[in-house]
Amino acid sequence: MTTVALRNRTLGAATLALSLLFSACGDDPLSPEMEILEELSGVWTATSFLVAPVSDPTNSTDLIVLGGTLQMNVSTDGEIVTTVSDPGSTDQSVDVGTLTVLSATELQIQTSPTSPSVQYTFSLAGNRLELSGRAPIQLGTDPAVDSNITAVLVR
């Protein structure tokens, strides 16, 4: 009897050890930032893109209403492809960069390796993304102007 009881305990301990080992090898839970990045992944199209010079914040212009376009394709690894056209232009610029989630309400976008990173506050509700930040904006051949940006994007 003692041998059987000892064998059952040994088998029980071995089974427990194996189950713990296999459960530890499962997928690691995602960090909160990675979970948000997964939620942000997809193709986003701007329905509003307000730009107001920092020097004159009451003078805002909605580039989408004027005929401009902005589309962002965000992948789960943080790559972002932005496609932009200025109002009145048929030319599109396409940039490949990175999107980094900094917190539950802040993210950083670098549209290309040579462009500066821009920090935005954001809110995400289902298929609606709102971004607010400050960046130099260049329209056409005009020089870039330090501007406040507010964008609404949908997917």
Q: What is the string of helix and strand elements?
A: HHEEEEEEEEE
Strand order of the largest sheet: 1-3-4-5-6-7-8-9
Helix count, per DSSP?
A: 2
Radius of gyration: 25 Å
Strand composition percent: 35-45%
Please tally the β strands and state the result: 9
Helix share bin: 10-25%
Q: Rough shape? A: globular
pLDDT averaged residue by residue: 85
Low-confidence stretches: 3-8, 13-25
Structural class: alpha+beta
> What separation lies between the terminal Cα atoms?
68 Å
Main β-sheet, in a few words? 8 strands, antiparallel, barrel
Can you tell me about this structure?
The chain is an alpha+beta fold and 155 residues long. Helices cover 21% and strands 45% of the residues. It contains two helices and nine strands. The protein has helices at residues 2-24, 32-40; strands at residues 42-53, 61-62, 69-74, 79-85, 93-101, 106-110, 118-125, 128-137, 145-154. An eight-stranded antiparallel beta barrel has the order 1-3-4-5-6-7-8-9. Strand 7 and strand 8 form a beta hairpin. The chain is globular, with a radius of gyration of 25 Å. The N and C termini lie far apart (68 Å). Mean pLDDT is 85; it is low at 3-8 and 13-25.
Give the key terms.
alpha+beta, 2 helices, 45% strand, 155 residues, eight-stranded antiparallel β-barrel
Question: Can you summarize this structure?
Answer:
With 155 residues, this protein is α+β, with helices and mostly antiparallel strands.
Draw up the topology in text.
Layout: H1 2-24, H2 32-40, E1 42-53, E2 61-62, E3 69-74, E4 79-85, E5 93-101, E6 106-110, E7 118-125, E8 128-137, E9 145-154
Antiparallel strand pairs: 1-2, 1-3, 1-9, 3-4, 4-5, 5-6, 6-7, 7-8, 8-9
